[in-house]
Amino acid sequence: MLSQKLFGDVSVLQFIYFTLVIATSFLFSKIFVAYLRRNLRGRVDDDRLQNICKFVYYGVLSISVLFALPILGTKLSGLAVAGGVAGVVIGFASQNIVSNFISGLFIMLERPIKIGNEISIGDTDGVVEEVRIMSTLIRTFGGLRVRIPNINVFTSTLINYESYPIRRIDYIIGIRYEDDAEVAIAALRDVLDAHPYVLVHPAPNLFVSNLGDSSVDISVRFWVPIGFFYDIKFKLLNPLKLAVEARGIEIPFPQRVVWHQKPNNKEE
Amino acid sequence: MFGTYHPPFYLDTEGIAVSVSKHGCVNYCRSGEDQVERSVFGKPVFHIHPVEPMHLPGPPVRALYLAFDHPQLLSPKQQETLYLTFPIEVGVFLENGSKPYLLDIYDKVPPKLTFYGKMQDGFLCRYHQSDVHVNASKHVNSGFGTLRLNLVNQHTNWVTITRVILNSYGMKLFFSGERAYMAARMKIIERDKAEIECLAEPIQEHCHTAIELFPTKRFTTQVRKFVMEGL
User: Fold this and answer.
1) Which residues of B touch A164 (CB under 8 A)?
2) What's the pTM value of the predicted model, to 2 decimals?
3) With left for phi above 0 and alpha for psi between -120 and 50, is residue B32 left, alpha or beta?
4) DSSP state of A263
5) Residue B216 above 70 pLDDT?
6) Residue-level pLDDT at B223
7) E strands, chain A, in order
8) Which of B34, B89, B109, B114 to mutate to test the interface with A (most CBs of A within 10 A)?
9) Average pLDDT value for residue range A81-102
10) Is the ipTM of this complex over 0.90?
11) Phi, psi of A96 (to 5 degrees)
12) In chain A, how long is the greatest CA-to-CA distance?
């Protein structure tokens, strides 16, 4: 019964043997990937670990399929010829898919982004959730999931907000022309000095940057750890405002001086 | 203040009150701006020790950056011993026949961070500007510990030193009463480069070794010596 032909020249025994080899390799690759994941976790970045696991998993499966195909009587040399012809046809038909795939490989090798990074690609801002072989998944700050084809990730201008451990916050604070800018700068500096996450080095930079229509503008630039950027940016502006106000300095509204000139007499 | 305590106890200076309820539950309470309250089951012993001052305001940073209040000049091949101050962080540990468990950590002085190194590979440090003395001062303000720094100029030129950076790994703290101590060696190996190592030796008698917090975390490597660029 086992020598009975199932289809073509393939017997039931050959088919069972082929299935066993594939199932074993499938099981082996699963176990091996689980072993890798357990042993490399904590030693390798999450995104790199994910790529290694994917590569090993599909690599083991591909090799085992290539080794198992001769069991069914398939000659690999024939596959190569057929593959060459099919490759030309598929290549023309699937340029976008191939370019996304190649871009995905380059992104994985070059690693301009990591999982968890805050990035901006084109009009999309968000956190990288996953870098797949064909596309990259972004979770926007508004809670939307955006799938960006890797060719767009690779060819667009990409801003990674978390490449460096620290980041600069810039504020512009306007004061009245009659106020002393040096006093205002001293008040602002006191607030920055008292804050634990405003870094001593690189030193904060405070200076009069513009003489505006309604105010003297003071630029306040300081560096913070990247993990606290938004928290500090949103919370520190009000204490800075209160600090200058405590010194009797006001932040002016836009204003325009209008002169009304009365004619001396009606005849004129 | 530093030492081992059996509940119930009360430390007025620290604002720590540990009481035992009639059901045997131990209540830990620390007053202050960042009030902490915990209920502990079991019969733990409390250890209150100085810990590496790099955990607050959190998350832990890699090094302690001590800026000198004025630059120190060292002649070629000279050795000198300086005494600096460092900020104290206090760790409250529980122990009940097992490894000490960190229950609470608090600061004696407001923390401040700085950045050391190049943008690509630099790291965050706890910052402190220290007075520099040639003798161990007995009048160190509360909240600060004493660091004995052995300076060794192996270079053939004069060098100016304005700061020292201590790596968190391998930092050894000692305490006696309310005082915390630490010792380190700074070898100037090039004009602009020094090798810094924390020493596992108390700088005075009757000191106890403090519990190290960094080794209790899951760090895989320990680098005891640290090469600092830019003196």
Assistant:
1) 119-120
2) 0.74
3) left
4) P
5) no
6) 52
7) 5-7, 10-11, 118-121, 124-131, 135-140, 145-149, 158-160, 166-175, 205-211, 216-225
8) B114
9) 74
10) no
11) -65, -40
12) 127
